[in-house]
Amino acid sequence: MNSIERFFAAQTYAVAGASNRRHKYGNKVFRALLAAGRETYPLNPAQDKIEDHRAYPSIVDLPLVPEALSIITPPEVTRKVVADGIAAGVQHIRMQPGAEDEQASQSAREAGINVIDDGSCILVLLARQP
């Protein structure tokens, strides 16, 4: 199983950078994972609810540790999100194009996490899933 297949084999997801603005990728990714039947939690410290789902300030505030974390944040925020994901025990991290941070990717890989930071778009990848 390749890194993308392992990411999509996860049962639980968190989306860092989820948004109420439907034109933003954070919202599109959150909705796409939900539509694909994935148990998904939105992460956004500035929102209480996103698409009628309780939003959480960070991964440490979730009721569980998600297996997979999709990141749609600026690189300087990505570093903190990844550090929190490592500390929480996340198994898979995918960074949306523009969210990538080399230092964060390296730290996650060193922690044994499956990292997808190759510029691929989750919306395209998810559409290809069986």
UniProtKB/TrEMBL annotation:
Residues 7-99 form the CoA-binding domain. This is CoA-binding domain-containing protein.
